[in-house]
Design goal:
12 helices, 25% helix, FAD/NAD(P)-binding domain, Enolase-like, domain 1, single chain, 5-stranded parallel sheet, 462 residues, alpha/beta, 3 domains
Amino acid sequence: MATERLVVVGGDAAGMSAASQARRLKGPAELEITAFERGHFTSYSACGIPYWIGGQVPGRDDLIARTPEEHRARDIDLRMRTEVVELDLPGGRVRTRDLDSGSEAWTGYDKLVLATGARPVRPRLPGIGAHGVHGVQTLDDGQRLMDTLQRTEGTEGRRAVVVGAGYIGVEMAEALVARGYEVTVLHRGPQPMATLDPDMGALVHAAMNRMGILTVSGAEVTKILTDDRGAVRAVATAAGDEYPADVVVLGIGVEPRTALAREAGLPLGESGGILTDLSMRVRGHENIWSGGDCVEVLDLVAGCMRHIPLGTHANKHGQVIGSGVGGGYATFPGVVGTAVSKVCDLEIARTGLRERDALAAGLRFVTATISSTTTAGYYPTAADMTVKMLAELRTRRLLGVQIVGGAGSAKRVDIAAVALTAGMTVDQVVSLDLGYAPPFSPVWDPVLVAARKAVSAVRAAG
């Protein structure tokens, strides 16, 4: 039997998980694996970059799970600094460019995996290309930002502006505070953390300001101002304000990197992400798979396709893809939209639908918000915690949970994530047998208290 050829485009979580899983199932005599990565690093934790920047993680290499040499030792031909610039689907080949030499070549395949990831949203603004303006998505991005920060290490009065207040924005704000910067966060929305409802985002806003992070809502950035050397000196907004900056970090969000797929005619969703079936095969293409931050996934609560770029999903996608490529069988059924973050001492979590998501899905619902503590109120480590819950009016089904609070708050969202995946009602959530001891929880866990209030809200609404 002839040896099959697998080409993997992208050398991070989804791509190399797929390659590794396929290699476990098929040896080099059965499956030849070639992977292309445009950057300098592979198999790393992009989610850990803010903590490396902030100093909680000692060094860049601590974020790398597996080096190119380790992949090659497992008979995966991993080619770094090599970008795939064209897909020839009828011919079963990809055109690559060596980013150091500029040389190009064609490589044939029998099976293809697209794991091209996402890229930071970079608005078209005057000065956006100035020295000192950074997006943070890849480890290469993180290294460039670290190089900029280290050039001014030890200088007094250093100022940073973060544009955007999503997960990346608030995490980078914390990292820059840890490095001694005066930090301003500018964002267009009514409150930071648009992944939360505005009433919960207001809690994040107040906490960030208490931490010394100036957080400006409703701020539309119009221009990056530069000095005579072409380096950033300030950020201007539509209101006519200027915020001085020695460094600017873009935390506006990311978009799927799917230009290759689009040019090749592969199916894309509303967000521009690649569309796949449950086995992560690209729809309509038997021998092409895709996973990671470049795809759309099924939202199990809303029942629609969404772009949700998270490393947890990417690694699972890779396992599913590798199983399919290697002759096995696995599926990725979808997500409920669970995510956690922190800014300094504040923990932030959400899963399921926000109010505007539920409205967009045409659902009638009630909300319930409660204030509690992370442990028994008398226990010395007790911290404030706010929980908001959404429940469908007709079925009493849990629709979503948001949590903002002190240490010990965020991971409680996992209770709700399991309940959402199981399709539980808020009545069933109230009856969950959760662990209790004063150092860990009040007698009634805050998630259960919110569920009790949601049950009452459903009854009151008839």
